[in-house]
Amino acid sequence: MSDRRVVITGLGIVSPLGNNKEDFWKNLIAGKSGIRTIQSIDTTEYTTKFAGEVVDYDPKVYFNDFKDGRRADRFTQLAMGGAKQAIIDSGLDTADVNKERIGVMVGSGIGGLTVLENNHTQLITKHPSRVSPFTIPMMIANIASGMISMEYGFLGPNMCIVTACATSNHSIGEAWRIIKFGDADAIVAGGSEASIAPMGMAGFGNMRALSTRNDSPEKASRPFDKDRDGFVMGEGSGCCVIEEYEHAKARGAHIYCELVGYGLSADAYHLSAPLPDGSGAARCMRMALKHAKLNPEDVQYVNAHATSTPLGDIGETLAIKATFGAHAKDGLVVSATKSMTGHLLGAAGGIELAACVLALRDQIVPPTINIENQDPECDLDVVPNVAREVKLDAALSNSFGFGGHNAALLVKKI
Q1: Which residues does the Swiss-Prot or TrEMBL record annotate as the active site (predicted)?
Q2: Does 7-250 carry CATH code 2.60.260.20?
């Protein structure tokens, strides 16, 4: 099992910062905010009126037959965009491969929330007969993975993991295990989310989890800043093609980097709050290092989960210090790209792993924007406000979800 190396050969991004990997990356390293006043729903009665929306996205481009796309919730439409981009980027769409050994693992933290809302309204205000017969298959979180496999005829392992904001990292990590175990040669993996909907905004808002900085949305997501007041909702899709190294070499695929480590753990503590000491997150990062056979000082960059919540950012700071020791204060750079994208929930890990991969490619670390008064309890080098050229050999991406789900992925140059 351990002799099978796994590499990344394709990336696909649909995000508030751009609907392909190069636009996303250009805007990310420029420190541009993708947060704006919500246009898709009426927010008059809501405490938070802004989010990281995907704009100028045409789902018809990503379906061979858009009648299937019309029968898809927005999260599935976004997922198809991220997956198709990653597949084309990898060359799998034209390669002579055994499709029985190509899998799909694209998850979602929430799934078809808009479809559920709309059809529940039909049920309550009209009649049960007015509920669409497509409600269930459009709503269920696994349908994106299923539809991607149908679009390409991929017959290998197909699964949907739902672990809130850790969904993408778990999906990619478990796909890594499947390839290492020998049950697939390549897997399209990641996550998608589209929860900028009335129920999503009301539910998170009433938890007091969201920022209410309505007068300056672009400054609302401020991880590690002392004046942070909650996370900012985002939507989009982040997918990658991960592939067994020899399989990728044999077909002449472009290889971005190697996926060398994956860690996971539970806090077993609270429905939505992290362990205050960050010990669950630290165990997860240590496992990723162990799988990768790397020492803490071998990693130069951490893309932090850092959602801009008062408790979460401090807990992750403690976890990074516990994991990396003295290196956390001398040589390690940490940035929070959610400061620009908002929090894409189940899609966050896919987007943020792509940021790590592109950072390795271009040897530049994206910034944490909106650092105006860095919290002294978050005393890491968080690359404030401006991207930085850094010699990078390895990077780690963290994702932590409600329910105490922790997952970390580790990539390195090949």
Answers
A1: 165 (for beta-ketoacyl synthase activity)
A2: no
